[in-house]
Amino acid sequence: MSKAVEIDIASVSKIYGKFTAVDAISLKIPAGSYCCLLGPSGCGKTSTLRMIAGHETVSRGDIALGQTVVTDLPPAKRGTAMMFQSYALFPHLDLVDNVAFSLKMQGVPKEQRRAKAIDMLRLMQMDAYAGRHPAQLSGGQQQRVALARALITDPEALLLDEPLSALDPFLKVRMRAELKKLQKSLGITFVHVTHSQEEAMALADLIVVMDNGRIEQAATPREVFERPSTSFVARFMGDHNVIPGKVAGAEDGRVSFDVIGGGSFQASGAPLEAGSDIDVAVRIDRVRIGESPINGLGFSGIVSNLEYRGPSVKLTIDGAGISDFTAIVSDTAFFSTPVDVGDAVPVHWDAEDAIVLARANS
Ligand SMILES: Nc1ncnc2c1ncn2[C@@H]1O[C@H](COP(=O)(O)OP(=O)(O)OP(=O)(O)O)[C@@H](O)[C@H]1O
């Protein structure tokens, strides 16, 4: 039943009064992919989603679904469906009438729309509850009904605004797996707004990291994790130490840099002019402790905090002008030579795990 379409966002801006919430973004979301718009509160992800849906006007630029430019079309004519954060179910209607609502608006005869609504409830394994009202359902069940209601129009793209935020942590993880399964089985394009890195990593084929109305990086979860393109992405994804410094020199794909008031280090990256301000990202899970640093790939510092996490231990270390440097080491590695808060410890990493990034614009 797949009739997925590519979503093409071309130089789209959203301006509220004098405030630019979305700033000339361009993005192609491949047909049939699961795309997560990810970023902190206020970065413009909901405005972007609402412009795709047609619930918000586009100030500049164009949006196309497949071959159709939808910029000026009303929501119902776009081939998209939207699922809202609060689910927006009608409390006075039973589940069948809730799910059948948009078909009623389209003038589909009662028997036909009820039959389709029951089919959709069956797809979401909610047909046994068809006669209930929303208040008689759990959060996860309400979410399934909201999905059935969004999918009843056979959309080419489903747009989801923080669909898991109302659920408790346990249910969140379960419904997340269901969303992914549903997207795979329907084969349509999903665009899902979230501020959770973990959620985006778990779900997306394409993660679009946004900040201040702009796209910082659009890539697969693995690329975003392994090769963050900016310091903002590295910091926001939370899996890197971001160390500010100044370029001292460069040769053979290595950049030497100095931390203000601290040590001199090396990282991987293209040559940059000496004196340029840079950030360097070091993967927190690739840092080793207890090995003497060589060739500017580590330092000696003092352990300022320890967190035991079961399979791993998180250490916070200060030294060489770097504060709150984080290392995640396996429990086995940690307990073979344990250290305590206040101990001096050498930390070490490989050159390919320290990458030069564009300095954050903030
Ligand atoms: N109708 C509006 N009028 C004026 N400003 C608005 C309006 N809607 C959103 N904004 C502003 O635009 C910016 C982007 O909002 P948007 O809702 O797109 O962000 P978001 O990334 O989805 O944030 P959140 O995660 O908090 O929902 C915010 O600074 C917000 O205050």
Automatic annotation (TrEMBL):
One of its GO terms (molecular function) is ATP binding. Keywords: ATP-binding, Nucleotide-binding, Transport. SUPFAM superfamilies: MOP-like (SSF50331), P-loop containing nucleoside triphosphate hydrolases (SSF52540). Pfam families: ABC_tran (PF00005), TOBE_2 (PF08402). PROSITE patterns: ABC_TRANSPORTER_1 (PS00211), ABC_TRANSPORTER_2 (PS50893). Residues 7-237 form the ABC transporter domain. Belongs to the ABC transporter superfamily. This is ABC transporter ATP-binding protein. It comes from Devosia nitrariae. The lineage of its organism: Bacteria, Pseudomonadati, Pseudomonadota, Alphaproteobacteria, Hyphomicrobiales.
